[in-house]
Amino acid sequence: MKKVLTLLLSVFLLSGCSLFKDYYNADQLVAEMEKLVTQENKNDSIINKATDLRNQVINDLNAMKEPDQSKISDLSGKIEEAKKLLPQYKEEVKKIQSHFSDLKSKSARLEDENIKKMAETFINDFMKTTETELKYIEVFEKVLASDEEYMKDLKNGKETKDNQSQLDELNKLHTQLQDEIKQFNESWNQFVQSTTGQEVK
C-alpha cells in the first residue's frame, strides 16, 4: 500500500505559530503524529506479506494444469498463513485509533484558528484512512475464507465457486484507501509546513 508521509527532521522552529502556547501545542501534536505515521508505515509490511502470500497462491494455481493434491495442500498452508496475519494488522490499526482522542485534545488547545483548522483536517483525514483499512481487512478476511473453500473443493474434486464480487469490493476499497492516504499526506504536509517550515518526506 502507499505509504503515509513521515517527518524526517526534528522540529525546531514553528514558524506558523504566533503564540508560544501554540508553539508548544503544535510541537506536541507533530511529535505524536510522527510516531503514529511511523507505526502506520510499519503496518504495511504485515498487509503486504499477506497480499504476497495470496498472490503466490493465485500464480501457482494459474500455472497448475491438473489438480495436484500435494501442491494444493502447500497452497492451502499459504492461505492459512495469510489469514493469521490479518488479526495482527487489525490490532495495530486499532492501537493507532486509540490515540485519536489525544490528538483531538491537543488540536483543541491550539489558539490560532488557521492552525487549529489544519490540525483538525489532517486528524480527520488520518481517522478516515484507518476506518477504511479496517473495512479492507474485513473484506480481505472474506476473500481468504473463500480461497480456503476453493482449495477444499479443488482438492475434493468438487465444482469451485467464483469470489469475483469480493475481489471487486477489495479492489474498490484499495483504490479508496490510496485516495484517502493521498489526501492525508497533503493535509499533514500542509500542517507541518505551516507550523515548522519543513516538508514531510
UniProtKB/TrEMBL annotation:
SUPFAM superfamilies per record: MW0975(SA0943)-like (SSF140423)
Coiled-coil ranges (or none): 36-113, 160-187
Keywords: Coiled coil, Lipoprotein, Signal
Domain of life: Bacteria
A Pfam match: YkyA
PROSITE patterns: PROKAR_LIPOPROTEIN
Protein name per UniProt: Putative cell-wall binding lipoprotein
Organism per entry: Thermoflavimicrobium dichotomicum
